[in-house]
Design brief:
InterPro entries: AAA+_ATPase, ABC_transporter-like_ATP-bd, ABC_transporter-like_CS, ABC_Transporter_VariousFunc, P-loop_NTPase. This is ABC superfamily ATP binding cassette transporter ABC protein. Keywords: ATP-binding, Nucleotide-binding, Transport. This protein is α/β, with parallel strands linked by helices and about 300 residues long. It folds into 2 domains: about 5-215, P-loop containing nucleotide triphosphate hydrolases (Rossmann fold); about 225-285, ACT domain (Alpha-Beta Plaits). Helices cover about 30% and strands about 30% of the residues. It contains 10 helices and 14 strands. Strand 7, helix 6 (about 165-180) and strand 8 form a beta-alpha-beta unit.
Length: about 300
């Protein structure tokens, strides 16, 4: 029997007046899974998360967490959930240490040796007042409190905003530890490399709709591999293969070429190249960024320079 989803969203809709922020959002998150939720600003990521958290009410569809409706059972859901937003606002006159302890207390948790280890790892001076903290240090306070809690579901909405690269790595390591412990993580991020490193499944949202979801591996058939090759004989017949794009010969004899190839045509291309005698071959698999840009450029959502 397949485990029931920790989080399930079906045909979720949200209107703000006449503006339809969410049109059809469908997501599933299972135990021990890290789900990457990606899309540009305004696509509907944070609105979806606010509905999951029970902060706003959906206009249509459903959002359930632990099998309970997100809006009606928000209080009980929050007992087993940790959340870190992209912009953390803290009580200005409390110290970082006092704030961490308060956040833990509000979640029914306690300051433990794990908390102390996290403070040391993130190099946070907890004696300073929140009003003196940079954006990155405010993020650290929230992340330390979240990683100190023992809950089933962790929701991160642009959590590394303001963190330096070293602290981003520490964040990634702790997410990996949560996954290993069987916890579930929803990660909303615009840093595609971050999502690619950590996430088991990915959902791409555009204009209030989830337009593609699944593992990165399962979605890579939708984009292209980059190939650089050197052959003994001219590879002129690459021009005749429909799955080959952006073909450029880098020598006059046409024995060196660079091109992109549709994933479902790789076998045919390799067979043709093998007949020409491959001397050197380099292939680069499609990345999440390739996939993401393909969706947004095809819809005219990204312009040059953006």
């Amino acid at each position: 029997m397949v485990d029931e989803p920790i989080l399930e969203i079906k045909d979720l809709k949200k209107k703000f007046g006449k503006f339809q922020a969410l049109k059809a959002v469908n997501l599933q998150l299972h135990k021990g899974e890290v789900l990457g939720f990606i899309g540009p600003n305004g696509a509907g990521k944070s609105t979806t998360i606010r509905i999951i958290l029970g902060l706003i009410k959906a206009s249509g569809g459903s959002a359930t967490v632990f099998g309970q409706p997100a809006w009606r059972q928000a209080v009980s859901i929050h007992r087993n959930l940790a959340y870190v937003p992209g912009d953390v606002y803290l009580w200005p006159n409390l110290t970082g240490g006092q704030t961490i302890d308060l956040l833990l207390h509000m979640s029914g948790q306690k300051h433990t040796a794990t908390t102390d280890a996290l403070i040391k790892e993130f190099k946070l001076d907890t004696s300073k007042k929140n009003r003196t903290y940079s954006k990155g240090n405010r993020q650290k306070v929230a992340l330390i409190a979240a990683f100190s809690t023992d809950v089933a579901l962790y929701i991160f909405d642009e959590p590394t905003s303001g963190l330096d690269p070293l602290n981003e790595i520490i964040f990634q390591q702790h997410v990996a530890a949560l996954k290993k412990a069987g916890k579930s993580v929803l990660l909303s991020s615009h840093i595609l490399s971050e999502v690619e490193k950590m996430c088991d499944t990915i959902a791409i949202i555009r204009d209030g709709r989830v337009i593609e979801s699944g593992s990165l591996e399962s979605m890579q058939h939708l984009t292209r591999n980059m190939v650089a090759v050197k052959t003994r004989e001219p590879a002129d017949d690459l021009r005749t293969i429909s799955g080959v794009h952006q073909l450029v010969y880098t020598d006059d004899a046409h024995t060196a070429a660079e091109f992109s190839v549709d994933s479902d045509q790789i076998g045919l291309v390799m067979a043709r190249l093998a007949n020409k005698g491959i001397i050197r071959l380099k292939t680069t698999p499609p990345t999440l960024e390739d996939l993401f840009l393909r969706y947004y450029q095809s819809a005219g959502h990204l312009k040059a320079g953006e």
